[in-house]
């Protein structure tokens, strides 16, 4: 088939690799003049790592990223541990790999270039015209191509998802975050952990080791401070030194990080929204990644969900003879995994980012205590790993043997089709 993919982020690049390897004629369309990554750091969970392994890219991403074995959070005032999630609570040697978004983008982008998949840049896709075939239309009204299928991987600002069977737009969440990518500092920080500090649910500070943005680069950390986007200007107006003093007051060891910030220009303001397309498809249209579903980053599943969507769509197109049947199969394969984590994100986010006084009290007392009692540690680890609902079996994949992979990360793919 002739397939257009709108968006050259992780979802679009992974879909391009899968569909090209399946023999389809694929063209990527990107609104930037040069495809670039957006954002700071993320954790690739065992689900997303399985997809990269299946694509033959695990060794490359593991060499750039930082292995993560636990997520640990403490109350900034009392020092009490209120979050302690360890992958070892699960069987199979699971772990995460924290990466700079530039590293994930670079690994996928280089693979696309190696395989000669064409990328048309500087094109802002505005709408979709569907008849016997599908055509794209840019913001200048120019009609582009004749395609059997269009894949919308254009992210949260998608203009194509309105052509889905049941279109839904994201609703802004109250809290976002300041993000920065900084030089890694060893003293006082665990190179294999996401560390966080909380003051109720209004302040959350995090430090995540993310390895290198590119081969040969310096080791980096993603640093973030949660806040309401509506408050960002007030924080800036109060001055950088006042903000730094607040950070250090909550977490003195972060002095080494905030001293690297000379201007608010080094901080990116992330805004989050929540939406889920009931059916991530329309006529000759598949919607994947953040265009299909978005939420708070609290459970850290965004990029992993995008990679799973790409694999699921490719599997459905292999399994079904018609596009209509394939799109229905794709939607079914991803439904329960996506809906489960969207629901869980809605449930957990207010405990960590909200104006509530009661919820953080419950988090720090009742929930923190209950989380240490079996089987809670295993359940929490499965939530973080993205495996509490199996997303792989329905798309023809099995998880890698992570114990073997950890010993030989550049070795052959061990994820196999059912």
Automatic annotation (TrEMBL):
<feature type="domain" description="FAD-binding">
    <location>
        <begin position="3"/>
        <end position="338"/>
    </location>
</feature>
<keyword id="KW-0503">Monooxygenase</keyword>
<dbReference type="Pfam" id="PF01494">
    <property type="entry name" value="FAD_binding_3"/>
</dbReference>
<protein>
    <submittedName>
        <fullName>2-polyprenyl-6-methoxyphenol hydroxylase-like FAD-dependent oxidoreductase</fullName>
    </submittedName>
</protein>
<keyword id="KW-0560">Oxidoreductase</keyword>
<dbReference type="InterPro" id="IPR050493">
    <property type="entry name" value="FAD-dep_Monooxygenase_BioMet"/>
</dbReference>
<dbReference type="InterPro" id="IPR002938">
    <property type="entry name" value="FAD-bd"/>
</dbReference>
<dbReference type="InterPro" id="IPR036188">
    <property type="entry name" value="FAD/NAD-bd_sf"/>
</dbReference>
């Amino acid at each position: 088939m002739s397939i257009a993919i709108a968006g050259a982020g992780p979802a679009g690049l992974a879909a391009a690799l899968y569909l090209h390897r399946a023999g389809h004629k694929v063209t990527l369309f990107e609104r930037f003049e040069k495809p670039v990554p957006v954002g700071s750091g993320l954790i690739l969970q065992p689900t997303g790592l399985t997809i990269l392994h299946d694509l033959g890219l695990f060794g490359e991403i593991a060499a750039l990223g930082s292995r993560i074995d636990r997520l640990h959070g403490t109350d900034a005032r009392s020092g009490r541990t209120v979050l302690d999630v360890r992958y070892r609570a699960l069987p199979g040697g699971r772990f995460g790999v924290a990466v700079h978004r530039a590293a994930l983008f670079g690994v996928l982008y280089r693979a696309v270039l190696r395989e000669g998949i064409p990328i048309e840049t500087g094109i802002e896709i505005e709408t979709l015209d569907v008849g016997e075939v599908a055509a794209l239309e840019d913001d200048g009204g120019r009609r582009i191509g004749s395609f059997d299928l269009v894949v919308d991987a254009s992210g949260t600002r998608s203009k194509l998802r309105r052509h889905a069977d049941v279109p839904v737009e994201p609703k802004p969440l109250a809290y976002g975050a300041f993000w920065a990518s900084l030089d890694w500092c060893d003293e006082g920080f665990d190179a294999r952990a996401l560390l966080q500090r909380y003051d109720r649910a209004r302040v959350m500070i995090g430090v995540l080791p993310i390895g290198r943005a590119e081969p040969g680069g310096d080791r980096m950390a993603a640093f973030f401070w949660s806040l309401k986007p509506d408050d960002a200007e007030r924080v800036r107006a109060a001055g950088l030194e006042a903000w730094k003093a607040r950070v250090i007051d909550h977490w003195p060891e972060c002095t080494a990080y905030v001293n690297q910030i000379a201007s608010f220009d080094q901080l990116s303001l992330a805004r989050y929204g929540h939406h889920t397309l009931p059916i991530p498809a329309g006529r000759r249209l598949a919607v994947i990644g953040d265009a299909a579903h978005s939420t708070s980053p609290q459970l850290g599943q965004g990029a992993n969900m995008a990679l799973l969507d790409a694999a699921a769509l490719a599997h459905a197109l292999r399994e079904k003879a018609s596009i209509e049947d394939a799109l229905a199969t794709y939607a079914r394969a991803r439904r329960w995994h996506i809906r489960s984590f969207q629901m869980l994100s809605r449930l957990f986010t207010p405990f960590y980012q909200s104006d509530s006084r009661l919820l953080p009290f419950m988090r720090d007392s009742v929930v923190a205590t209950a989380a240490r009692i079996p089987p809670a540690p295993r359940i929490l680890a499965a939530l973080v790993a993205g495996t509490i609902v199996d997303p792989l079996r329905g798309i023809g994949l099995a998880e890698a043997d992570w114990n073997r992979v950890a010993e030989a990360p550049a070795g052959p793919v061990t994820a196999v089709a059912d």
